[in-house]
Amino acid sequence: MEGFGAGKVILLGEHSVVYGHPALAGPLSYGVTARAVPAKRCQLSLPGTLSRPQRALLTRAFQRVATLCGEPGVKVTLESELPLSMGLGSSGALAVASTRVLLKAAGRDGSPQEVARLALEMEQEFHGTPSGVDHTTSALEKLLLYKRTPGQSTGRLKVLKSPRPLKVLVALVGDRSPTKHTVGALRERQARWPERYTRLFKQIGTLAAEGAKAVEDGDLEALGDAMNVNQGLLAALGLSSPQLEDMVYRLRGLGALGAKLTGAGGDGGAVIGLFLEPEPAVKKLLDDGIRCFSSQLAGPRAL
Ligand SMILES: Nc1ncnc2c1ncn2[C@@H]1O[C@H](COP(=O)(O)OP(=O)(O)O)[C@@H](O)[C@H]1O
Ligand SMILES: C[C@@](O)(CCOP(=O)(O)O)CC(=O)O
């Protein structure tokens, strides 16, 4: 038995989404697969390479969703294609994959909405107070405009249709930045200078709403411009780094319509570039030894 949870990229609106503003996010084809085999009791099997605190965290998170699924008698193993804490939603994907396989083991399929509702239990263990955008995008596997309900980790969403293929290049740079730390450090700055930070969050939320309209209108140039402006605001919030900035400028130099960090940011993480055709840029970066790949987030696919 298997369950899959997709990774995600945020095109516009990370961090401000935590404060109740909209974000535009889409699913990756890479993700996490959870596999279950019959066992005496419900358990998560983990590789010996994980540290003791990591094991404890994962076991706790798994147990929360296992309880809700009625503790089916299975042993679950995980296989991830996503780098950890690099902005691609590995924890949300893990939560969705585990939830899907536990539901299946309990004899239920579960709608994407139900999967998202249950997976939140796990995601809360990783993030504390997630906006919900990661695991919701992972469960629905659609391009979404998502807005958190104040004080909660669920929200309202609109599934967006793109008349044009929406293709991004994703490049990985620098060291891991756990989301919990980045969100926590920003929370301290926001608490100290609330008006200044609230102003920036609002502006980012407006960009996300404008970006969603640009997607629906097929105006990729307008979407790319919103991404570039969003990057400037993320840097103003203290979420970028020299390595992330270098990659942003590199992708723009390679023809990206827009480029920005995606996810939590920090010292390192993922940078996305919106391209009409990303493959030549992917090839160039791979030749230079940079970890990267392309992904289509929405829109018509070539036959
Ligand atoms: N395959 C996995 N194996 C073990 N832990 C994982 C796995 N995928 C995700 N995690 C957990 O999720 C955390 C990463 O989540 P986070 O810092 O939110 O970054 P992101 O979601 O951007 O990858 C890891 O520290 C770990 O606790
Ligand atoms: C920074 C944030 O907006 C997105 C984090 O994404 P990731 O965990 O870095 O993939 C946090 C959240 O939405 O809960």
Notes on the protein architecture:
It contains nine helices and ten strands. The protein has 303 residues and is of the alpha+beta class. It folds into two domains: 2-159, Ribosomal Protein S5, domain 2; 166-298, Alpha-Beta Plaits (2-Layer Sandwich), CATH 3.30.70. The strands form two sheets. Strands 1, 2, 3, 4, 5 and 6 form a six-stranded mixed beta sheet that branches. The longest helix is centred in the last third of the chain and has 24 residues, at 194-217. The two termini are 30 Å apart. The protein binds adenosine-5'-diphosphate and (3R)-3-hydroxy-3-methyl-5-(phosphonooxy)pentanoic acid. One of its GO terms (biological process) is isopentenyl diphosphate biosynthetic process, mevalonate pathway.
* Strand fraction: 15-25%
Q: Estimate nothing, just give the exact number of structural domains.
A: 2
* Helix share bin: 40-55%
CATH class of the largest domain: Alpha Beta
Assign the structural class, choosing from mainly alpha, mainly beta, alpha/beta, alpha+beta, or little secondary structure: alpha+beta
Unreliable stretches: none
The name of the CATH topology of the largest domain is Ribosomal Protein S5, domain 2
CATH architecture of the largest domain: 2-Layer Sandwich
Ligand names: adenosine-5'-diphosphate, (3R)-3-hydroxy-3-methyl-5-(phosphonooxy)pentanoic acid
Individual helix count? 9
Task: Indicate the overall shape.
Answer: globular
Order of helices and strands: EEEHEHHHEEEHHHHEEHE
Largest sheet: 6 strands, mixed
Distance between the termini: 30 Å
The number of strands is: 10
Rg from Cα: 19 Å
Mean pLDDT: 96
